[in-house]
Amino acid sequence: MVDKKKEIESLGRRHFLRNSAVTGVAGAGLAGGFGASALMSSREAHAAENGIEIAPGELDEYYGFWSGGHQGEVRVLGIPSMRELMRIPVFNVDSATGWGITNESKRILGDSSRFLNGDCHHPHISMTDGSYDGKYLFINDKANTRVARIRLDIMKTDRITSIPNVQAIHGLRLQKVPHTKYVFANAELPIPQINDGRDLESPDNYFTMFNAIDAESMDVAWQVIVDGNLDNTDADYTGRFVASTCYNSEKGMTLADTMRAERDWVVVFDVEAIEAAVAAGEFETLGDSEVPVLDGRKGSKLTRYIPVPKNPHGLNTSPDGKYFIANGKLSPTCSIIAIDKLPELFDDAIEPRDAVVGEPELGLGPLHTTYDGRGNAYTTLFIDSQVAKWNIEDAIRAYNGEDVNYLRQKLDVHYQPGHNHASLTESKDADGKWLVVLSKFSKDRFLPVGPLHPENDQLIDISGEEMKLVHDGPTFAEPHDCILLRADQLNPSRTWTRDDPFFAETRAMAEADGVTLESDNKVIRDGNRVRVYMTSVAPQFGLTEFKVKQGDEVTVVVTNLDQVEDLTHGFVMVNHGASMEIGPQQTSSVTFTADKPGVYWYYCSWFCHAMHMEMTGRMLVEKA
After folding, report:
1. In the 8-state DSSP scheme, what is residue 94?
2. Does residue 171 form part of some domain?
3. Nearest to residue 589, comparing CAs of 604, 600, 598, 579?
4. 313 a known binding residue?
5. Residue 545: which CATH number?
6. 419 marked as part of a ligand binding site
7. 525 lies in which domain range?
8. Which of 436, 464, 513, 537 sits 20 to 30 Å CA-CA off 526?
């Protein structure tokens, strides 16, 4: 009889970059005896074989929300078809919708509108009692230290918060129960406190913080200073504990320095203790910020530091609420932390390592773990280019000395996977149907497109005993992470409501001007500021001509009176950098300077009617 453990290990491409976990990854070739014909088999054949084809006109069972990486946006996909449905601009400028151009979007971006870039990593959906409620999606911006909220009824970003006192928001997760009161966000990179030019050459005085943002107001509620740095994070199902990995306990300023220690740690935060300390006034404020800052460094009653193998990365809560699992990255192991032992740890009744109840060896480069809700975990192995399926309780039994094989399967993915995400897996409702793996390299998977290659998202069927790869597809600009929820957990609007707060300030401006947005087409002059109000009904703007003077600041306000689903209008003023989308029953506005005299056409940019091309007007600019 074939030894099952040896059989599983033989699946691994263990010699693949064995001698270098941190360099040369992009140049690695294929190994393990897989021929080109097997690797290049068509996605259509996989889909047909596994019965997942979504025919034209059929709807997907799940929504997927992908981070857009350094594109700064969120992408919406249907699962299992993997069809891209929408792109939601967040930290980027988007000329199609006018995001970063319209007055409404600039108000949401606030002072940070001066940044033209973003780096989205972790999208997460609000919860009630541990289940997705479909209200909000939150996402971080590592590049410019921000957190954004997207309203899922309209699929638009409605709030963006810049986080004070820290740099580089990376790990982000939400409070799961009783509801998403807080958005928890890790600042990854330590800086001097206060960062005003002091301590530039004194890394010992650099620190970073764990941050809690109020999910409704989007104000920063409190911050906790920690030792080391912070990477990924997740919350429990009691509302009390949040855990975060630290890969740089050394506070090293170079790559070599960050790898000196044989162990780093997971820091656990006691949210109830932090709230009590804030209420008791046991905090300080830094610089111009009024956010309460608490001390969570070693020895604090607010935190505990659990040693784990060096340079851990992902931190994922099991859907049964029992475990935090920290992924080793430079160790072939994952560390299983029992959440029910944490009260004892905070009472100093046990030692920090006593909270670790399992440490299975999975392969080279474990980064992230997801779950199927049936007791199995799925961990990406970056160096091995595999996903390892393993059983949590069996891994705990093996840690306690039993002769039990916790590995169930290893599946090759292409190539170097980072995040993975199974359907509903961040909630208590994990259903074990689909697993998405986001691979960092695509190499020979697609037609060559020059030196910059796409990345590769792969869909795996995990509904049975064996994982089955059923689809892969190219994607652009590192979509770092994703999240999947059932289609019935969302209720997107089909048209806008006229009292939507998204354009409330524009509506207030019209009221101050004595303008009825739903019917008036008029020009209001206020010195050298001109406000142009017009309606749109396919295929015509309510104003087809207006006159201004050279140097005027012109604000165009368009209200789309069409009530038909999917009948969106656009407004583009030629040669003025002005562009915006106006959905049915929406009001949008854009401001620009009429700096040159002459005739300038405006037109509808979203196809709306057989006479769409004729939906135009003229701005006449008189010489000053």
Report:
1. B
2. no
3. 579
4. yes
5. 2.60.40.420
6. yes
7. 501-622
8. 537
Q: Residue 606, annotated ligand binder?
A: yes
Residue 537 above 70 pLDDT? Answer: yes
Where are the extended beta strands (E) located within 58-205?
Answer: 62-67, 73-79, 83-89, 124-128, 131-141, 146-151, 156-162, 167-174, 182-189, 191-192
130-186, pLDDT tens digit by residue? Answer: 999 999 999 999 999 999 999 999 999 999 999 999 999 999 999 999 999 999 999
**CA 169/CA 158 separation, integer angstroms:** 19
According to the model, what pLDDT value does residue 271 have?
A: 98
- In the chain, pLDDT over 70 holds for what percent of residues? 92
Residue 568 in domain: yes
Phi, psi of 11 (to 5 degrees): -70, -25
- Tell me which residue of 43, 63, 39 sits closest to 52, measured CA to CA: 43
Q: Which of 536, 589, 588, 540 is nearest to 560 (CA)?
A: 536
Is 580 annotated as ligand-binding?
A: no
Does the pLDDT at position 11 exceed 50?
no
The two structure tokens encoding residue 150 = 């997207």
Is 334 annotated to bind a ligand? Reply is no
122 labeled binding residue: yes
C-alpha 206/C-alpha 251 separation (Å) is 8
3-state secondary structure 382-443: CCCCEEEEEEHHHHHHHHCCCCCCCEEEEEECCCCEEEEEECCCCCCCCCCCEEEEEECCCH
Residue 39 pLDDT greater than 60, yes or no: no
Per the annotation, does 615 bind a ligand? Answer: yes
Give the chain's domain count.
Answer: 1
- What integer pLDDT is reported at residue 477 of this predicted model? 87
Sign of CA dihedral 92, 96, 102, 105: negative
Domain membership of residue 52 (yes or no) is no
Predicted pLDDT of residue 52? 72
Q: Which two tokens stand for residue 249?
A: 């306990």
Q: Annotation-wise, does 608 bind a ligand?
A: yes
Please provide the DSSP assignment of 580-615 as one string. Answer: EEE-TT-EEEEEEEE-S-EEEEEE--S--STTGGG-
